[in-house]
Design a protein that fits this description.
Elements (H helix, E strand, L loop, with lengths): L22 E2 L10 E2 L5 E6 L6 H17 L5 E6 L4 H13 L4 E4 L8 H9 L4 E4 L9 E5 L1 H16 L8 E6 L5 H14 L4 E7 L5 H15 L4 E6 L2 H13 L15 H9 L5 E4 L1 H16 L3 H7 L2 E3 L7 E6 L1 E4 L5 H5 L6 H4 L5 H6 L4
Parallel strand pairs: 3-4, 3-5, 5-6, 6-7, 7-13, 8-9, 8-10
Antiparallel strand pairs: 1-2, 11-14, 12-13
Length: 369
């Protein structure tokens, strides 16, 4: 992944004051000028799966709320979740093209397979913004977290937990994400940039569809190969898979868990971190990402070029396109001591959400009240 910072271009636009109907940006005679609208905006939102609870719980409602706010409650979001089925997502996207939504936010199940449908949207004059995962094809922009940094934070956290005595005698299992998700490759590369040469990667898996049950099966295989007593730590690319890893270790009779990473700061994971069964997660501010995506989508179809440029000051290359306007949101490590200043401070979860009966003592021990 290559990122190139770019200053905001001073683009001057003149938009005809016709609220609610599509007109052309009238800046000169540029035939490629963006179509512009008033507040009657329809944003198509395509999210990839349900195994990760963040999409239905955070991304969709935040985007829906922000689009409503930006359009004075006149805009709307058409939402579909593909439940990890690439073919279903292509059908969902085609329906949105047929329904003539104004812009599509696409979080691809399979970034390569969706490219031809992205091209169909482009041909129909519908901008496509890749959301969270970098889709192939002629996308107009991309917004996600800094995925290589996610992996680096995970790998660095494992090394910090293993301590200064960590070395090549320490065997690590890597539970990577789905091979159809380009983010998973970036997480893996980021983690390996920290781990290679410092510990031994004893086994590594690319986990189909990010599913916890697949991670559990992979981990069971790794335990059989390596031996439960010889696993020093587990790199898990996200929290759902961390749950599967922990389940496999418990079934193997492990009572004290090795350090295990995660990502997404799911509520169950935050509680596992409190209890000490999972070491850390990567906290990504979903409100920051989702609100910025909504702003990008609305600015794109309303012809607010300067605002759109301000939101996309990074550049990124995909396998099919170069120099894609992008916004990369920063991330941070969430360990037990960081719960209050991350998910609680940002309003993702309340203390009552986290400190249920089973976790009250653990919350009290870190002053989480």
């Amino acid at each position: 992944m290559r990122r190139i910072a770019m200053s905001v271009a001073a683009v001057s636009t003149m938009v005809l004051p016709l609220a609610g109907c599509g007109v052309l940006n009238s800046a000169g005679d540029d035939a490629s000028a963006s179509p512009t609208m008033g507040d009657q905006v329809t944003v198509g939102l395509l999210l990839p799966e349900k195994a990760n609870t963040r999409y239905d719980k955070f991304d969709y409602p935040i985007i829906k709320s922000k689009v409503s706010e930006l359009t004075h409650k006149k805009g709307k979001v058409e939402y579909a979740n593909a439940d990890a089925d690439a073919g279903q997502q292509a059908d969902q996207m085609q329906r949105m093209i047929d329904e003539k939504v104004n812009v599509i936010l696409l979080d691809a199940v399979d970034s390569h397979a969706i490219a031809s449908t992205v091209k169909k949207a482009k041909d129909a004059g519908i901008p496509v913004i890749a959301y969270d995962r970098l889709a192939e094809g002629p996308i107009d922009a991309y917004i996600s977290f800094d995925n290589e940094l996610v992996g680096q934070v995970q790998g660095r956290s494992l090394l910090e937990r293993l301590g200064s005595g960590a070395g090549l005698s320490d065997k690590i299992v890597m539970m990577n994400g789905s091979p159809t998700d380009p983010n998973a490759k970036q997480f893996k590369e980021g983690a390996l940039s920290e781990l290679n040469g410092k510990v031994t990667i004893a086994d590594s898996f690319d986990t189909k569809d990010w599913k916890p049950e697949n991670a559990e099966a992979n981990m069971t295989e790794a335990i059989g190969k390596i031996g439960k007593a010889d696993i020093a730590a587990v790199y898990s690319a996200n929290d759902g898979m961390a749950a599967g890893v922990i389940k496999a270790l418990k079934k193997a009779g492990v009572t004290t868990m090795p350090p295990i990473t995660g990502q997404d700061a799911e509520l169950d994971a935050v509680q596992r971190i409190l209890a000490g069964t999972q070491y850390m997660s990567v906290y990504k501010s979903y409100p920051d990402e989702a609100e910025a995506a909504a702003q990008m989508a609305v600015a794109k179809v309303q012809g607010k070029d300067i605002q759109f440029d301000a939101l996309t000051q990074d550049r990124i290359d995909s396998p099919t396109d170069k120099q894609i306007p992008a916004k990369l949101v920063q991330v941070s490590a969430l360990t037990k001591s960081k719960i209050k200043e991350t998910v609680v401070a940002d309003g993702i979860y309340s203390v009552d959400d986290i400190c249920t009966a089973d976790y009250k003592a653990a919350c009290a021990a870190i002053g989480l009240r």
